[in-house]
Design goal:
Blueprint (H helix, E strand, L loop, with lengths): L3 H9 L1 E4 L11 H12 L4 H14 L15 H13 L5 E5 L7 H18 L2 E5 L3 H7 L6 E2 L2 E2 L14 H10 L1
Parallel strand pairs: 1-2, 2-3
Antiparallel strand pairs: 4-5
Length: about 180
Amino acid sequence: DLSEKEKRYWRIQMGMLFQSSALFDSMTVAENIGFSLLENFNYSKHKIKNRVNELLTLIDMEGYGDEMPSSLSGGQKKRVGLARAIASEPALLLYDEPTTGLDPILSTSIEDLIVKLSDEYKITSIIVSHQLSTILRTVDHIYMLHNGELLEPETPKSIAKTKNLMIREFIRGGL
């Protein structure tokens, strides 16, 4: 029942890192990162450029602003997608399988970024993942769906000793 203005407000409060990064292949890295700022805010080009440069530093990709997505590795694309997702400083960040398809080293770097955003920028995150290392390294609470039902929540510390058979099976399968 929200008005269009209210819907727009709430949409801007959310960022999304897509599983495939979903970068615009016809735009440079800088244009991809600054896209939501250009579309949703009345920012000057100078302000957008400064924010993009801040984010390139945050994701350890200084100097990549003029690159095209096709020239990036999978991990770089994920980081650019993450920078784009946080460009507008959302209150909530949604992650769809943020480490899928990445090797363990790249997965760890993405997990580190997720933790940094949570700790330093106080962004609330919802992470959908089947990757056990990502789950255990990045979250405070773990919610699992089974047959359409939400199971009792766990924490990274409690999950190893869970009494729930479905969760135990998932953990064993993940190891």
